[in-house]
Amino acid sequence: MATPKKSRGAGAQSKPGRALALIVIIMVALVGGMFASGTFTPRLGIDLAGGTSITLEAKNEPGKPNAINQTNMNTAADIINRRVNGMGVSEAEVQTQGKSNIIVNIPRGTNEKQAREQVGTTAQLYFRPVLTMTSGQPAGKGDKTATPSPSASSGDKATDKATGSDKATDKATATPTPSATTQGRAVTDSLKADATPSASAKGDDAKASPSASTDPATSALQKKFMQLDCTDKAARTKINEGAKSTDPIIACGQNQGQWQKYILGPSEVGGKDVKKSQAVINQQSGQWVVNMEFTGAGSKKFAATTSKLKSQQSPMNQFAIVLDGDVVSAPSVSSTLSQNAEISGSFTQESAQDLANVLSYGALPLTFHEQSVTSVTAALGGEQLDAGLIAGAIGLALVVIYLVVYYRGLSLIALASLLTSGILTYTLMTLLGPAIGFALNLPAVCGAIVAIGITADSFIVYFERIRDEIREGRTVRPAVERAWPRARRTILVSDFVSFLAAAVLYIVTVGKVQGFAFTLGLTTLLDIVVVFLFTKPLMTLLARTKFFTGGHKWSGLDPKRLGVQPPLRRTRRATRPVDPKEA
Questions:
Q1: CA–CA separation, 195 vs 167, rounded Å?
Q2: Are 335 and 193 in contact (CB under 8 A)?
Q3: Which of 128, 150, 147 is nearest to 327 (CA)?
Q4: Sign, Cα dihedral of 482, 486, 492, 498
Q5: Rounded to an integer, what distance in angstroms lies between the CA atom of residue 403 and that of residue 405?
Q6: Which of 115, 117, 340, 529 is most buried, most CB within 10 Å of its CB?
Q7: At 440, phi and psi to the nearest 5?
Q8: Cα separations (Å) of 185 from 140, 204, 205?
């Protein structure tokens, strides 16, 4: 005779310990992750932690009278938002205000200062040939014009990864880096495939370099160049007002605290020709570098430009990488470079990621200046948080009272499940801070409070299904297993609707409302985990105890209280065949 197979419900009923062990392991792993990361509290948003509020005002540019419009303002706000979040500053609020202002709220944190430095950077990037360079001081103050010097050393590096052989050095820092220095100091910016001589400054008086005779700049440009003091920020800003990418310009760069100034030719390669950039560690030098990959058209332009420069004498064999009017670096060229370039030098991880982040997200369509910078305190948000927590505590207390009064012994299972859900929610919120930049704000707290009701609703659905089975005449243990498939379907459908609503809300909204949607979606998923791995297995175990099996009046499953008349049936009665004699 064949042995009957175990039913699916019987199998689930016999091994509830496995599910309970699994969720315990998950909680231990999450708590262990908190200790490993050294993070024990969630990151807070600007409304709870305070921070900085920056107001940026768009400026009109010569020749672009209609540049300040809603389209460009929205584009600029989107780029600023991606820049700030790209640096790990989560919960930053970026929104337009009026016709020409953008408000940026940055929460207090480790990257707050870095975000402030980049938030209004226009990020106009150009590659320009170097025509002339000298000391950054005005003529007559000891400035030195760079001339060829075979003995000058080169220490900065960049690599053309398209060929795998051409190497160029260009130690760039977060601030502009020049390619020539004053008397007695070797050039530190050179882009080389071979040993290419750099340039050093010599002589006591400022004089024109060999490139001066071929410099296409006008006499007015030469006069401005000689008079410019690179230490004067206002002068550096105004020197190229109204200049186009096709015009020669004057620019300044800084190297080891010393300023250099340049006359640069028209740009043939721009920031839009850069496909992507990334901060990485160079495997050979162990230093942080920024890799740039050009587009198809950009690589052709870059190859054509470097092909022209490689046969020139220093400093005319150099090209300057100009970001927002400042020379980031000015490497020399000894061979044709193509699709990829690597900017290396005295980068820290922060400064390398800073530059790569700006280049990756592109240039702002408008020029901005900081209209105001104010500090935001957390006092108001703290008061609102206290009020919200009090409201949440009152709501939780009411839920507990209701469960105890109505479900009695079953309320212990519900409260244990709520506690488990709370531990999972707290640990995940804490770990998501350093992992993805999640920051807890007031709407997110509201989402967590709403989740209490969603979680409690799942327990109630299951408990009521069990009671329905008991009302039909079944004892506790069969009722627990037969109620689960029906309750499971209802719980999944309900949680799916809640999660769908949270997902839609997260997609179509911005700012703090996304915090509410994210928290609601997270806690909805956790509700499924808790009900399947904790509530159901725990209910199965407790259903084997005399307290619940015997239908104690405080168990919540007392047949008399549920309106059931004994005897209770465990299974359906088999029909006994009628004996013909008895008939």
A1: 10
A2: yes
A3: 128
A4: negative
A5: 6
A6: 115
A7: -85, 120
A8: 20, 14, 16
> Going residue by residue through the chain (583 aa), what tens digit of pLDDT does each one get?
445 444 444 444 457 889 999 999 999 999 999 998 888 888 777 777 777 888 888 887 666 667 788 888 888 888 777 777 665 555 677 878 888 888 887 777 656 666 666 676 666 778 889 888 887 777 655 444 443 332 222 334 344 543 433 334 333 333 333 333 322 222 233 333 333 333 333 333 333 343 444 444 467 888 888 888 888 877 887 888 777 788 888 888 876 678 888 989 888 888 778 888 888 888 888 888 888 888 888 888 888 888 888 888 878 888 888 877 788 777 777 777 777 777 766 778 877 877 777 667 666 777 788 888 877 776 666 777 788 778 878 888 888 898 888 888 898 999 999 999 999 999 999 998 878 778 788 888 888 888 888 888 898 899 999 989 888 888 888 999 999 999 999 999 999 999 999 999 988 876 678 888 999 999 999 999 999 999 999 999 998 888 888 878 888 887 888 777 655 555 455 555 555 555 4
Alpha carbons 437 and 44: distance in angstroms, whole number: 10
Helix runs in 310-437, H state only: 349-361, 379-407, 410-436
477-481-483-484 Cα dihedral, nearest 10 degrees: 140
Is residue 555 within 8 A of residue 543, CB to CB? The reply is no
Q: Is 159 in contact with 171 (CB distance < 8 Å)?
A: no
Q: Please state, in angstroms and rounded to a whole number, the distance separating the CA atoms of residues 522 and 544.
A: 33
Q: In whole angstroms, give the CA distance from residue 518 to residue 436.
A: 12
Whole-number Å distance between alpha carbons of 286 and 284: 6
With beta carbons less than 8 A apart as the criterion, state whether 120 and 59 touch: no
Q: How many CB atoms lie within 10 A of CB 14?
A: 11
Identify the residue whose tokens are 């065949």.
577
User: 546 is written with which tokens?
Assistant: 């005399």
| C-alpha to C-alpha distance for 236 and 317, rounded to whole angstroms | 24
- In the three-class reduction of DSSP (H, G, I as helix; E, B as strand; rest coil), residue 146 is classed as strand
- Rounded to the nearest 10 degrees, the angle between the axes of helix 410-436 and helix 512-530 is 130
Picking from 328, 317, 346, the residue whose alpha carbon sits closest to that of residue 146 is 317
Residues 30 and 21: their CA atoms lie apart, in Å, by: 14
Torsion of CA 372, 50, 34, 353, to 10 degrees: 0
With vertex at residue 564, the alpha carbon angle to CA 563 and CA 570, rounded to the nearest 5 degrees, is: 155
Report how far residue 137's alpha carbon sits from residue 252's, in angstroms, rounded to the nearest whole number: 10
- Closest among 330, 359, 344 to 280, alpha carbons compared: 344
* Dist CA 265 CA 324 (whole Å): 16
Helix (H) or strand (E) holding 492: helix 476-508
